[in-house]
Amino acid sequence: MGVPTAPLELEVFASLADMYRGLVGMPYHRITYIPNTVSRLSNQKCREYILGNDPITGRSVVAEIVEVLTKPLSKEAKRAGLLERPEPRLIGPDTEENLQRLFLENKWTDFLPIVLPTKERVARMLKGTSHKLDEIVGELRAGYEAGSYNVETVAANAVMAGAKPEYMPVILAMAASGVPAIATSTQSFARMLVINGPIRREISMNAGCGALSPFNQANAVIGRTATLMSMNLGRGGVPNLTFWGTQGNNLNYNHATFAENEEELPPGWKPFHVQKGFGSEESIISIFHGYGLWHWKNTFEEEHHKGILRMANWILPSGEYKSGYSLLLDPIVAEALVEEGFSTKESLSEYVYKNSLLTLEEFWQYHLVEGMSLPAGQKGIEPYASWLKQPKETLVNRYRNPEEVSVFVVGGRTNAFWQGGDWRLIGSFSIDEWR
Amino acid sequence: MEKRRKVVHTPRRKEAKITLVNPRGQLPAIHQIPMAPRLDSLDGKTIYIVDVRWPYTHQFLEEVRSIFTERYPRTRFVVKEKAGSYGEDDPKLWAEIKERGDAAIVGIGH
After folding, report:
1. Can you state the angle between helices B58-71 and A43-51, rounded to 10 degrees?
2. Nearest Cβ partner for A1 among B20, B40, B98
């Protein structure tokens, strides 16, 4: 801005603010803190915070703000310059015990046992791809800055997770997507990783009984690598510094990774990647953003499509903060839905989209709608701009289009169960490019 | 005389050392930015109070204005909402503050 600025922040984010001012090149910026969140706080309580003391310094908030704007700067604060921060290619040599401790103490792991990425192990992992070890793969931003990395660095994380070389094309596709598996948000979200195409069989993934449980090496390790890459390549995952998910999400261990059971799709139901325009013989990973999975037992309707609609109505409405609904159906459920009249996945998505409605009164009350769709409407962006002028009883669609309702078949036919969750598609990425 | 037993010292086996490939990505260089010169005082100045648009926090910034107006009657305090959601930049507002303001108070993240 070019003018003196006094930032106000919450005490709980002090360590982040301290780090961030360094990252943006203003390590000497002074920040004033208040005790706690002010979202929905009464005016009276807000006044108390402002008239009170900074919980870190113990000094008056008002006096500190004035000081930030008026106290002369130090010589260091007036300086310009460039600070390089190169990472060495290799670590060591040292004993295995010392290196395991180094990785743990530096929070480079998910605190499950890791396989140390020795030069020999990484060399073997690199045989899983034709790409050269020094080829730049991409950038990930899981913390507050984007780390860049090459094929060898990705392979090191794959070794740590316990991957086999044949998983490398999938892992490289994830790394190249630029989508971090974890991020800084106070929401504790996770990813869902769905694999389609021939690679599923090549690396013996599980699309049947127990596909989402820890009973298959590829399913377990691919998702685990996503988190390790976000921590190490994307510099995220340190609580109270680069990770602020107030409760965390257990799915961050492996991100609901599974292969779609394409072999059990009813006639007329296409594999997910084919729905997205890829050829059936292409191998694709689809990455979803969301929070959790609910079991069908939370609904009671006899016909599956009615229970699916009931669950659809629990999901955050999709607006400028995009939402989504994903269904994981056992093959028996998919067959039953065909008998209920849904001859394609698309017809089921269409049914949910058309019938999951809410009033504008309800829509505007959602936290993320107030924070994102409302300002968009005020800027003139449709449909929110028009919705602001309509009566509060007006019914609108919860989802922006049927494509926000994704349908998968996965499971082993032990019972007619399904799961649903608030998962929206971020993107689908080629695995074959990384063979 | 007791026969002395020969003491044999077994050399301590050295623990093998290994070298690892660093699993960490590369970070860009940091450009340090010199901070803007400070005000001599608040008197006669225009101070913007910027609401970054975290949901349901606007009342806090209005209270900041109310309190500072009470305490610094010779200073003009202007509350402005940043355009867009909390994650969006607002270069127009920064340009306005630079042109018409002398300083800014910015809040609040949550």
Report:
1. 50
2. B98
> Which residue, A283, A285, A287, A286, is CA-closest to A199?
A283
A298: amino acid identity, one letter: N
pTM for the complete prediction?
0.81
Q: Which sequence spans correspond to the domains of chain A?
A: 8-78, 102-298+426-434
Residue B37 is assigned to a structural domain of this protein: no
List all residues 6 or more positions away from A123 whose beta carbon is below 8 Å from its beta carbon. Answer: none
Which chain A residues contact residue B60 at CB under 8 A?
A: 38, 41, 46, 49-50
For residue A376, the chain B residues in CB contact (below 8 A) are: 84-85
Paired residues of A53 in beta bridges: A60
A81, closest residue in chain B (CA to CA) = B32
Q: Looking at the complex, report in whole angstroms how far the Cα of residue A196 sits from the nearest Cα belonging to chain B.
A: 28
Domain assignment present for B79: yes
Structural domain includes residue B26? no
pLDDT at residue B5, rounded to an integer: 62
ipTM of the complex: 0.85
Environment class of A355 (CB within 10 Å of its CB; exposed 0-12, middle 13-18, buried 19+): middle
A108 with B24: Cβ contact below 8 A: yes
Name the one residue in this structure whose structure tokens are 């080629």: A430
Helix (H, G, I), strand (E, B) or coil at A82: strand
Within A24-118, residue ranges assigned H as helices are 43-51, 61-70, 96-105
Residue A263: how many CA atoms within 13 Å on its side-chain side? Answer: 10
| Three-state DSSP class for residue A383 | coil
What is the tens place of the pLDDT at every residue in A263-317? Answer: 999 999 999 999 999 999 999 999 999 999 999 877 788 899 999 999 999 999 9
Is residue B8 scored above 70 in pLDDT? Answer: no
Q: How many residues are given for chain A? A: 435
SS3 for A237-271, per residue? CCECCCECCCCCCHHHHCCCEEECCHHHCCCCCCC
Tokens of A150: 């090459």
CB-count burial class (<10 Å; 0-12, 13-18, 19+) for A95:
middle
How many separate domains does chain B show?
1
Instruction: Answer yes or no: is B68 within a domain.
Output: yes
- In this complex, which of B21, B35, B42 lies closest to A152 when CB atoms are compared? B21
Q: Which residues of A touch B110 (CB under 8 A)?
A: 10, 13, 37-39, 186
